[in-house]
Amino acid sequence: MRNNASKSALDRIDRAILMALQNDARLSNKELAARVGLAPSSCLERVRHLRHAGVLRGAHADVTPEALGIELQALVAVQLRQHAREHVESFRAHALARPEVVGVFHIAGEHDFLVHVAVPGTEALRNLALDAFTSRPEVARLQTWLIFEAARAPALPDYLEPPLLENRTTTRRTRPRRGRSRTS
After folding, report:
1. In this structure, are 55 and 73 located in the same domain?
2. pLDDT tens, residue by residue, 44-54
3. Model's pTM, two decimal places?
4. Which of 85, 95, 121, 145 is the most buried (most CB within 10 A)?
5. C-alpha distances in Å from residue 45, one per residue of 38, 49, 90
6. Is residue 181 part of a domain?
7. How much helix, strand and coil, in percent to the nearest 5, is found in the chain?
8. Is residue 40 part of a domain?
9. Measured distance CA(20)–CA(28) in Å, rounded
């Protein structure tokens, strides 16, 4: 596999491995192999190839924000004054360095960035907007949307999900028994 593995470079078993790990990254290699219908050694080799190719970037814990005192999440749309590369890169780096920032998306359209933030409350959101974003010389304006509920879809779309091999039904070929003739 190449570093920029295309969809066609991933076969059905690779996609089954990715879907299984996406749903539960804590699967042991033995469990994963059983789910996708491979020997454990072959499964481990495929996972190594997926990591080496950059297709599988890591395993992540899904942490409940409220357990950490994070009561508020928001999406902050940021419009830059200028679109020069150095302004774009400067804002991206600044936003990613903030501990409140969950994700930064460079987007097309009216805004230049969509920043997902998680904070303890409204005062922290206000301070973040004023101190970290609007004080930046490259920022022209902000627009903020509060997140009432967050639901995650798997990163790999369902339409790419192959049926898992363990759920596949196989048909067994039948042969006539020896010594008996088949007559119709």
Report:
1. no
2. 999 999 999 99
3. 0.70
4. 95
5. 11, 6, 39
6. no
7. 40, 15, 45
8. yes
9. 11
